[in-house]
Structure formats: C-alpha cells, structure tokens
Design brief:
The protein is mainly beta. It is elongated. The strands form nine sheets. Strands 26-27-30-39-32-33-34-35 form an eight-stranded antiparallel sheet, with no helix packed on it. Strands 28, 29, 31, 36, 37, 38, 40 and 41 form an eight-stranded antiparallel sheet that branches. Helix content is 5%, strand content 40%. It has two domains: 418 residues, Neuraminidase (6 Propeller), CATH 2.120.10.10; 216 residues, Jelly Rolls, CATH 2.60.120. The chain contains six helices and 43 strands.
C-alpha cells in the first residue's frame, strides 16, 4: 500500500500513581479468553491481539465501565475506566482509574486511582475525557509543557447509606486535572463550575471519550471536549474549549432539544475534519416505534451529527440524524487516523459502536469513512469487503442469534498507535457487555482498508472491492463490476475543481445498456454545487452536468457509446460554457455555468458511482485526468492520440495501471 507509514504524534494517555484498585496485574495481562462459551472463544479471531485490562466476574455487583484512552508524547498508553464499586449503577460510588502501558513495554502496569473517595464520603468520579496538549506553531503561547495530559471528569456526592444506588437527582459538577509526566502523577482536580456549569442544569456529563486538539486554521492549538446536560425537560449539547492547555475553559457551541421522537441526542465524540471543521458524533437516544421501525436504522437512527466551522464556538446548524448507520442508542467513539493534508494517501475517520439497531448491545464493530463522514462502511456487506466494518468480538455471521454469538459490546474509545495501527478499548462480555474492558490492536488488514491507485501529482486514490486491473488503451486500465466497484479521489483542502475553467478527461469502455452509470462525480447532489458525467444508455446518451449557485447546465451526446469499444470523453468548462467531447468531437454544449462547483462541506471526487453509492459503472476506465484550465480542441486531440503529460494545468492524473492492496500487490485481470 502506498500510504505513508509515518504518523503524526497523536493524543497521549494518562496514568496516576495513587491507590491500586483490586485488579491484579496477572489477571489483567493474560490474553483474552471467552469466559464460558467455547464457541465464542473459537470465533474471537482477534484473541491473540487482545488483552483484558479490567475484569468484573460478579456483574452487576460492581463493575468497570466507560473506557477512555490516549497516547502520551513519550508513547505510553493510558487506559481509563470507571470503577463502580458496589453495583453497576450510574452516579453510584465510583472511582476513576487508569492502567498504563509504558513506551516500549509489553505489559500493562496495575490499575491505579486517578480520582477517588472514601466509604465515609463516597462520590461519583467518572466520565473521563482525556486530551493531550501539543505546542503547535502559530498557536497561542501557554506556560504548559508540551505533552501535558488534560483530563475532564465529573463529580457528584453519594449518600453513604446507599452507595450503590443511582443518585440521579444529585447535582453533578465538571472537574479538570492534568499530568505533566505522561500520566505518572496528576495535579489536584479543579472545579469547573464557574466556567462550564449552570445552576439550572441537572445531569451533566463530559465526554466520555478522548477530547481533541485542533491542528488546522485560526484555532490551531485549541482543546475541545463534548458535554451534554439536562435543563428541565430539555437535552443540552455543548462543546467546551480551551486555548491555554486546559487552564481555563469556555462554553462553546450549544443547542437544546426537547426529548421528542427522533431527536434525543446524548454523549458526544469530536473529530477535526480536513478542512478544519469539527464533526460532532453524537448518541441518538430515540427508542420509540414499532419493533419493525426500531430494527430499521433508516427509520430509527441512533447516530446524530453536527458541524462547527469556528473551532467549536457555534454549531453550523443543529444536529442531523444519520440514517442507515446500524447501532443501538449508546455512546460510541470517533478517531481520525489519516489525512491527506498531513501526508497520508487518503482521509480516514473511524467510529466504534455495537452494530445492531436494537438492544441488547451486541456485535462491537469499527467502521470507517473515507470521505470526511459523508458515508460509512456498513455491517451487511460481504464479510471481508472494503464496504464492511470489522466486528471485533464474536462471530460476524449476523444470522447467528445473540445467545450463540456471545458478543456483547458497550462503550468504547480508540487511539492511534505508533506505526499507524489503532488501539480499541471497549466494554464486552459473553453474557453482559459490562463483564470486562478489553484492549485490541487493529491494523489495516483488520480494518478492511481499500487498495490505492497512484495519482501522478503525488497522492493516491482509494480503490474499493469490485475494481481490478485489465488491459487498457495505454497499458493497464481499471475494470468496474457495476456492483461494488468504485474509486475515490481523496478530499483536498484546495478544490481540484474550483470556480474557474476546467477540463476532465478519461477513456471508457462498456456495453451494459440496462442502467445509468456514473463515469465521474464531483462533490454534491440534489441541487448542491456539483460536476458529473454519466452514461445513460436507456436514454441513448452520455450526459454531463455542472451545477453552481447560478443554476445547472446539462450537456448530452446523441448516443450512449455502449458498444464495448474504447471511447475518449471529456467535459470542459470555459468562461461559463460547458462542452462535452467524445472521441475528439464536440457533441454538446450549454452556457450559464459560471461559479464554484463545490460547497462548504468537504467531499471527494468519485469514479464509477454517485456520492450516495448509486449509478455504479460496469465497464473499464483508463487515464483519468483533471486540468485547472479549458483545454483547446487541439490539446484534447493531442491528449487523446498521444496520452501526453506535457499539457499545462494538470492537477490530477490516475494512470490506472495498478491497484495496490494493503500488504500485497495486485494487477489481476
């Protein structure tokens, strides 16, 4: 695979040196073994990569819950959890604990208490929200050292007479503390009541998941953490941020919703997008409807998303439910692992969550988005497809009932590891997701990473299942199967197709005359700014479209060219006039298409499908190019007959000569 093996230093982890919490090192360091189910043990294909860090043999008489994890600047990993001492009830007597894997070590150190209380004065310490501060060029200067680990948490008192009860009505206050020695010791916790709380709020919750530090744009260096709260009957969602390494905090983006059907958002996880926006990944608690409706993620979605375009200070609109993402109402984690503006071959964001839309919480799965959160891997495609998320526990045969799957999964968090692997810390068990918290290391093969095909300007395009190489016009070409096959040019901060002139050129060969097939599709749909070229054999044409704020201009050919022969096609915009060329001849044109063809949201360019996955191409494609100028007729002819790279203005070029799979080279026909 062509991805750069270098990785930026990502979020650190913590650990504190105080009181051990009753989990022996020997018990916590052994590889995971299914507790009572031989079938589950046999199905745990990641067993050799997994370590149980916190184990509770007597659920619900106490348990470990709500994991969070970060990586310190020295490479240490810090895995946090709530130690619920008497029962598994929320807001009961609990301590915040950590286990640390020192840099270079192979064994995790015993658990220690970061925040705790006594039986005489019990309290809830929980909702860990760790984030690692890095000193970034151009960021506000602070006195904090590089690598400070900042920890957000919450506290509420507990009645000593009923320490295992859920003290739901007790006030909860956010706190912050930090470590300047990679999690070995911690500062005293400081109340954030004046900065982030409100006397009218009831339940308040930070994270629970790692926070982020922004690295792009005007707010580079800023720390941001998700917060949710209750005010009367309303649900509140907020981003808390700090510009001084967690010394002071500010209330940022806020929105409040009544607990109405289809909008009941909770725990938040944040990701910085490649354009500097913050994607907020939220739990959607709605759980009303018929059994059929509840089972359908398109009818009852359990994920909500929002965007902040100003560093977390305000929301760009409100929260939108994400249909089709199968998960129950539960916290889940998000993590950026790859970004083209940081030297990677593509963009990738991961999320972890159980993957069945109804309770119980089962089938913990990691799913990826390669287009900045626009689309996600599913859970019902072929098991090892690049369209399929990876189930990390139990058999991924979804026909197996939960009793046989023995694959309960709950809350989770993720961290990027040295070398580019991903660490997942998650709740799980064969009979109850609160049985243990396990850590598993995942690599690109585990994560069903697509292949790549080189882009001459120095990047790589993603190649998904259903695309192979075959004979082309010039050397090799890509063959698309019409079902899953597609190619994706990664999002670029500076649009490849902007507001000026452009030319898009490629070769196609197909004979499937039964359906519309996208050749390429850039950016939006449904009236949004966009550019695309599609074969429409049912209407006996090839059609191009350019949509800007001024409107849409369509150009069409008189035939579909679905004859099984190679044809050169090009779409050109010149001073607002769009022209379609086939085999060097201008076959259609239209005017009135001046202006930007990309909207505010980051989206990639697709070959072989629309952005929503429709109109899959069934045929071959070769030598895809984009120019930031309008090529003349003579230049188009020169390009067609010589395949030259000497024409000025080329911003993208996929020769389509090879598909590089993760860990292997493939050029099959």
């Amino acid at each position: 695979m062509t991805t750069d093996s270098r990785r930026r230093p990502r979020r650190p982890r913590y650990r504190a040196a105080l009181l051990a919490v009753g989990v022996t090192a020997a018990a916590a360091l052994i590889p995971v073994r299914a507790a009572a189910d031989a079938t589950a043990a046999a199905a745990d294909r990641l067993e050799a990569k997994t370590t149980v860090l916190f184990s509770t043999p007597y659920v619900p008489a106490g348990c470990y819950r709500v994991p969070a994890i970060v990586r310190a600047v020295d490479g240490s990993l810090l895995a946090f959890a709530e130690r619920r001492i008497h029962t598994c009830a929320d807001k009961s007597h609990m301590d915040l604990v950590v286990r640390r894997l020192p840099a270079g070590a192979t064994q995790w150190l015993p658990a220690e208490t970061v925040l705790g209380s006594t039986p005489e004065s019990p309290a809830t310490w929980g909702n860990p929200g760790p984030v690692v501060y890095r000193k970034l060029p151009g960021a506000p200067a602070t006195s904090a050292p590089d690598g400070r680990i900042v920890m957000m948490s919450t506290h509420n008192p507990v009645d000593p007479a009923t320490p295992g009860r859920n003290h739901e009505g007790y006030p909860r206050t956010p706190y912050v503390l930090h470590s300047d020695d990679n999690g070995v010791t911690w500062s005293p916790a400081r109340s954030l009541y004046e900065e982030l709380d409100d006397p009218s709020w009831g339940h308040l919750q930070t994270a629970p998941v790692h926070g982020i530090q922004l690295t792009r744009g005007a707010h580079a260096g800023r720390l941001a953490v998700g917060v949710n709260y209750r005010v009367g009957s309303m649900f509140g969602l907020m981003i808390a941020y700090s510009d001084d390494a967690g010394t002071t905090w500010h209330k940022g983006a806020q929105v409040e919703y009544p607990p109405v059907a289809r909008q009941n958002v909770g725990e938040l996880s944040l990701v910085e997008l490649a354009n500097g926006d913050i994607l907020v990944w939220g739990r959607q608690n709605t759980n009303t409807g018929t059994p059929e409706e509840l089972a359908d993620p398109n009818v009852v979605p359990h994920r909500s998303i929002a965007i902040s375009k100003d560093g977390g200070e305000t929301y760009h609109g409100g929260y939108t439910n994400l249909p089709g993402f199968e998960a129950p109402p539960i916290q889940s984690a998000s993590l950026r692992t790859d970004a083209t503006d940081e030297g990677d071959a593509y963009n990738r964001i991961l999320v972890s969550a159980p993957s069945v839309n109804q309770e119980p919480r089962i089938r913990p799965t990691v799913r990826a988005s390669f287009d900045e959160g626009r689309t996600w891997q599913g859970v019902d495609t072929p098991l090892h497809s690049t369209d399929e998320g990876v189930q990390v526990y139990g058999t991924n045969d979804r026909r197996v009932p939960v009793q046989e799957c023995a694959c309960y999964g709950g809350y989770s968090d993720m961290v990027e590891l040295p070398g580019g692997d991903v660490g997942l810390l998650y709740e799980r068990g064969t009979t109850d997701y609160r049985s243990e918290i396990a850590f598993v290391r995942l690599d690109d093969r585990d994560l069903h990473t697509p292949g790549t095909t080189p882009d001459v300007p120095g990047r790589s395009a993603l190649v998904f299942d259903g695309v192979t190489t075959t004979h082309g016009v010039y050397g090799r070409a890509l063959a698309f199967d019409g079902q899953r096959g597609r190619v994706q040019l990664p999002y670029r901060t500076a649009p490849v197709l902007g507001s000026g002139d452009f030319t898009v050129s490629t070769w196609i060969r197909y004979d499937d005359d039964t359906r519309d097939q996208a050749i390429f599709w850039a950016y939006g749909q449904d009236g949004e700014p966009q550019v695309w070229l599609r074969a429409e054999p049912g209407s006996d044409r090839i059609r191009g479209m350019v949509t800007t704020a001024a409107g849409s201009v369509a150009v069409t050919s008189d035939g579909a060219y679905a004859d099984g022969r190679w044809h050169h096609v090009a779409l050109r915009r010149q001073r607002g006039t769009v022209a379609l060329f086939v085999d060097g001849l201008r076959v259609g044109s239209g005017s009135g298409a001046a202006g930007a063809v990309q909207g505010d949201d980051p989206t990639p360019i697709y070959l072989g499908q629309r952005p929503d996955g429709a109109n899959r191409f069934h045929g071959r494609m070769d030598e895809f190019r984009i120019y930031d100028r309008a090529l003349s007729g003579a230049e188009l002819t020169w390009l067609r007959i010589s395949n030259t790279n000497g024409i000025p203005g080329r911003t993208a070029h996929l020769p389509m000569d090879a598909v590089i799979r993760p860990g292997a080279w493939s050029s099959s026909s």
